[in-house]
Design goal:
28% of the residues lie in helices and 29% in strands. With 305 residues, the chain is of the alpha+beta class. Strands 8, 9, 10, 11, 12, 13, 14, 15 and 16 form a 9-stranded mixed β-sheet that branches. Strands 1, 2, 3, 4, 5, 6, 7 and 17 form an 8-stranded antiparallel β-sheet that branches. The longest helix is centred in the first third of the chain and has 15 residues, at 75-89. Bound molecules: pyridoxal-5'-phosphate. Pyridoxal-5'-phosphate binds at residues 38, 159, 193, 196-198, 216, 218-221, 254-256.
């Protein structure tokens, strides 16, 4: 269960946690067309600070644009609402989940321009998504029998609610089989990403990540690419196969929820030495320093609430 907090921002108002409800005929609940984001805020020396809010909010609007959903609130309104949700609930660090959804209105698959649209922004405490132990020691992953959505079947640049059926099917399959997370291949058989994480490998001393085709353009992916370059590494965005992953020196997941999580095993093959490698550890270390405001660089990524 999610530990409740006091308030949720819903359609322009701060409402009590128990009162943040939708009708059963909420369109998004039936057909999955809705947009969400996942954002974290961390305890910094200046107090709680939201990490890369500008980029997350931009992606929220972009996702809506892709899906032709008109966000009924101006940028500044939603920006301030995110800050208010953090302030009012008084946590020093946590997760923020804005959702743009189609309210109850006409049913059926023809969504008209004037379909009523709602927005809520919830926040709760959320520790290491793949476990504290996973962050430290690395996790195991299984290549899924499910493919990542084809680029023309689902819009991969948009965080669309309905797209996560694909992720849930893959994740449950992997967990059921005894692994910690899943890795999906794209419809051509190349490595794509995790259920909600981008994927990096260190191969021949170079860092590789999947290009922005079948994968979501992760903000953590972008952060890690920047930080890795500052550490002096070259990053190559290129397709690679599952067997290249098997023989990689290092591998890791990135995501707002998963942060930087090392991968120690894929399909029962040890990755590198079966523990977080030196490049992964260095990137993870600088990532946590940056998000927690303990690094003088990239302070512009932090919005103190
Ligand atoms: C949200 C998400 C990610 C990670 O994106 P971040 O912006 O880093 O949180 C990666 N892949 C998928 C499929 C996602 O939904």
């Amino acid at each position: 269960m999610v530990d409740s907090v006091a308030k949720i921002w819903m359609n322009g108002q701060m409402v009590d946690w128990e009162d943040a409800k939708v009708h059963v005929l909420t369109h998004t609940l039936h057909y999955g067309l809705g947009i969400f984001e996942g954002i974290r805020y961390y305890d910094t020396p200046d107090g709680p600070a939201i990490f890369r809010l500008t980029e997350h909010l931009k992606r929220l609007y972009d996702s809506c644009h892709i899906c032709r959903i008109e966000v009924p609130y101006a940028w500044d309104t939603l920006w301030n609402a995110h800050l208010d949700v953090v302030r009012v609930n008084g946590l020093s660090d946590g997760y923020i989940r804005p959702v743009v959804y189609l309210k109850d209105g006409p049913m059926g698959l023809l969504v008209k321009e004037d379909h009523p649209v709602g927005v809520f922004i919830a926040s709760w405490a959320w520790g290491a998504y793949l476990g504290e132990e996973g962050l430290k020691k690395g996790i195991s992953a299984k290549i899924s029998s499910f493919c990542r959505n084809h680029v023309n079947a689902m819009m991969s640049k948009a965080k669309v609610n309905g797209a996560y059926v694909n992720s849930i099917l893959a994740k449950r399959e992997a967990i059921q089989a005894g692994y910690d997370e899943t890795i999906l291949l794209d419809t051509e058989g190349y490595v794509s990403e995790g259920s909600g994480e981008n994927l990096f490998v260190v191969s021949g001393g170079r860092i590789k990540t999947t290009p922005l085709t079948s994968v979501l353009a992760g903000i953590t992916r972008d952060t890690v690419m920047t930080l890795a370059e500052e550490l002096g590494h070259e990053i190559v965005e290129t397709r690679f196969t599952r067997d290249e992953l098997y023989i990689a020196e290092e591998a890791f997941f990135t995501g707002t929820a998963a942060e930087v999580t090392p991968i120690r095993m894929v399909d029962d093959r040890t990755i590198g030495e079966g523990k977080p490698g030196p490049i992964t550890k260095a990137i993870q270390d600088v990532y946590f320093k940056v998000v927690k405001g303990q690094d003088p660089r990239h302070r512009d990524w932090l919005t103190v609430v």
